[in-house]
From TrEMBL:
Keywords for this protein: FAD, Flavoprotein, Monooxygenase, Oxidoreductase
Cofactor(s) this protein cannot do without: FAD
Name of the protein in its database record: Pentachlorophenol monooxygenase
Keyword Flavoprotein: yes
This protein's record includes keyword Aminoacyl-tRNA synthetase: no
Length: 457
């Protein structure tokens, strides 16, 4: 096979979808017997919504969730007021999605899994990777049941305790974000409305919050608890916790669906590539959950890697082209780690900084700006939406191809539109398959040389 993806979380499933639609022979394997059951990464940022639109799952994602409610603060059984969870970001033609969309992680994964199967892909559940060996032609991957699989490339999307990362000897340096232990759980309860994200803070900085999970009958409980807390993740234990921190009675918690404890920390893998092995998602970077950056950054990893693997395996691009994955994604992940830590500590407001629309790759070797006087959108920037001759750009971008804006002469394998929206500024723009401007020029004069250089012609 071409690519073995280890881990069926949002990262692995996104990558599986992207590779299968490119005609790449890819298999996703997952140690567990089924998909992850919890709501943990519930925020789908606007940039991820754009990715999901390209992959054909956005309608299902939007139908499965809803916007975030405002936060209301409680003290001694009384409401003290309310405030929005995010500072507003104005929508415009170039950014049709500007607010995070709440979808429990388990539901996001169900949608991604269904799309993968629809495209002809599959997930092998109950398949635990125990080791691998690389050679000049590929990798031999061993499983706990004694079987082996041969693949040209392996992608570690198997989480923060990644077995694949350990197998290739990549370190992961990080720090504790908060000394206090945290708890997250999905439950059902009575006694609270579903119009608000209910928070119950204490003077010592501990507290719990109960957020109605859009598209479900559940609430997500999140708690920052005192140091030294001994967790009881049973229904009785969660009931006692809710009764201790809120005005609700223990019996108001009617069902516990999932629970987990953790200590917020950040960590970044020393490398994102070791030969034929690539690290993505939590296997490459760990975030505080504050600000909703972890799942979204992970999806961006998969989206960046997918088209590059497709270019090498099906498009004739050179092997060295895959080096740009680490070149682009590791600095981006490092920046997101700093951002999520800042949100956790109250130094950064959720909003414009966290929607990921401003992320790009201006320093990448794949970004070539050749205009004499660049203005507007530049090489390395996210390519905004818009319309050209009645064609919506995001519709034109959808699919595994490159798109040329501002020139009528088609290039093989590239879709061409005769103009770019005024918001782009003057020039000709070549948009990569992942929606970023790779090359910009005053004319098409340097375009063939660029495509030859990146090996995508």
């Amino acid at each position: 096979m071409d690519v073995l993806i280890v881990g069926a979380g949002p990262t692995g499933l996104t990558l599986g979808i992207d590779l299968v639609r490119r005609g790449v022979d890819a298999l996703v394997v997952e140690r567990a017997e089924g998909l992850f059951p919890g709501s943990r990464g519930k925020g789908i940022q606007p940039r991820t919504q754009e990715v999901f639109e390209d992959l054909g799952v956005l309608d299902a994602i939007r139908a499965a969730g809803g916007p975030y409610p405002a936060r209301t603060i409680w003290k001694d059984g009384e409401r003290l007021g309310e405030q929005p969870m995010f500072e507003a970001v104005a929508a415009d033609e170039g950014a049709p999605y500007t607010e995070p969309w709440m979808v429990p992680q388990w539901r996001t994964q169900e949608i991604l899994y269904a799309r993968l199967v629809e495209l002809g892909g599959e997930v092998g559940f109950g398949r635990e990777v125990t080791g691998l060996e690389q050679d000049a032609d590929g990798l031999s991957v061993r499983f706990a049941d004694g079987t082996t699989v041969r693949a040209r490339y392996v992608v570690a999307a198997d989480g923060g305790r990644s077995a694949v990362r350990r197998a290739v000897g990549v370190g992961m340096a990080g720090e504790t974000v908060d000394p206090n232990p945290f708890l997250v759980a999905d439950l059902r309860l009575k006694g609270l409305d579903r119009e608000y994200w209910h928070t119950f803070p204490r003077a010592d900085g501990t507290g719990v919050a109960l957020c109605p999970l859009a598209g479900t009958d559940d609430f997500q409980l999140a708690g920052r608890l005192p140091e030294g807390t001994e967790f009881d993740l049973s229904l009785d234990g969660i009931r006692k916790l809710v009764a201790a921190y809120t005005h609700l009675d223990a019996e108001d918690v009617t069902e516990l669906r999932w629970a987990s404890e953790f200590r917020p920390r950040t960590a970044l893998a020393d490398r994102f590539r070791v030969g034929r092995v690539f690290l993505a998602g939590d296997a490459a970077h760990l975030h505080s959950p504050a600000g909703g950056q972890g799942l979204n950054t992970s999806v961006q990893d998969a989206y960046n890697l997918g088209w590059k693997l497709g270019a090498v395996l099906r498009g004739g691009a050179p092997e060295a082209f895959l080096d740009t994955y680490e070149e682009e994604r590791r600095p981006n992940a490092a920046a997101m780690l700093g951002l999520s830590t800042g949100v956790h500590r109250g130094e950064v407001q959720r909003g414009k900084a966290t929607v990921q629309l401003g992320l790009g790759y201006p320093e990448s070797s794949l970004s070539e700006e050749t205009r004499a006087v660049p203005s507007g959108v530049r090489a390395g920037d996210r390519a905004p939406d818009g319309r050209v001759d009645g064609v919506r750009l995001f519709d034109a971008f959808q699919g595994p191809h490159w798109t040329l804006l501002g020139a009528t002469a088609p290039v093989a394998g590239v879709r061409a539109l005769p103009a770019a929206p005024e918001s782009y500024g003057p020039g000709v723009f070549l948009v990569r398959p992942d929606g970023y401007v790779g090359w910009a020029g005053d004319s098409t004069a340097g375009l063939p040389a660029y495509l030859d250089r990146v090996g995508c012609r």
